[in-house]
Amino acid sequence: MIWQAFSLISIVQDCVVHRIILYFCRPNFRIIVMHPLKPYHISFKGLSMGHHSYDFEIDHEFFECFEASELHEGKVHVHLDFEKQERLLVLDFGFDGEVEVVCDRCAYEYLQPISGKQTVYVKFGEEAEEEGPDDVVFIPADASEVDVSQIIYDYINILLPLHRVHPDDAEGNPGCNSEMLHLLDELKPPAEIDPRWNALKGLLDKDN
After folding, report:
1. Nearest CA to 92 among 84, 77, 81?
2. What is the mean pLDDT of residues 196-200?
3. How many CA atoms, within 13 angstroms, populate the side-chain half-sphere of residue 203?
4. DSSP secondary structure string, 39-85?
5. CA torsion 188→191→192→194, rounded to 10°?
6. Nearest to 42, CA basis, from 75, 85, 78, 82
7. Neighbours of 8 (CB within 10 A)
């Protein structure tokens, strides 16, 4: 008996968008729920030793899966070179794209380009008691898959600059919202004059 795809819809459950695929075969139908982060669970049990390639397209659905995320919109291509060794997994990530962030100067959103590479080593067994390097992840010895979604999310955030400001336009002018910049200039307190300059000015005026 052949099941045929009937429709593709989305529902929101616990603030997470789930993709629902409805299958039907007269007179009944069934529902299969696929979590949006399921593609980021890489099963390596059946993989041969050596290198394997994976590509991910990060967008708003990805960011919505992380509670209290400051990122909500963006388009980032992530390439993963997955190397399976006897007792180690080596994950080489490449990031290229842009994400929407809030400008620290004018408080308006803009698209911040990001690009970079990162290598993560996945080891089997219990995590060491002492805090280890950030590029090492531990998974249970009997694990058959590794979830790379949190790794990708963390490194996208790391690639963002600490000071986030609209880039200048082609003419070298600030790319910030002009009305907000004008308002900030009006609210800027007057510059305080060093009292020593006032004393010196008084002496000069007295001499004249």
Report:
1. 81
2. 62
3. 6
4. GGEEE-TTPPSEEEEEEEEE-HHHHTTSTT-S---EEEEEEEEEEE-
5. 160
6. 82
7. 9
Q: How many CA atoms lie within 13 A of 178 on its CB side?
A: 2
Q: Would you state the pLDDT for residue 14?
A: 43
pLDDT over 90 percentage in the chain: 55
Task: Extract the tokens encoding 45.
Answer: 């049990």
Among residues 107, 76, 88, 122, the alpha carbon closest in space to that of 176 is found at 107
Beta bridge partners of 174: none
Cβ-based neighbours of 164, under 8 Å, separated by 6 or more:
101, 102, 103, 104, 112
Sign of CA dihedral 106, 110, 115, 120: positive
Q: 108 pLDDT exceeds 50?
A: yes
112 or 130, which is more confident?
Answer: 112
- Decide if 95 contacts 156 (C-beta within 8 A): yes
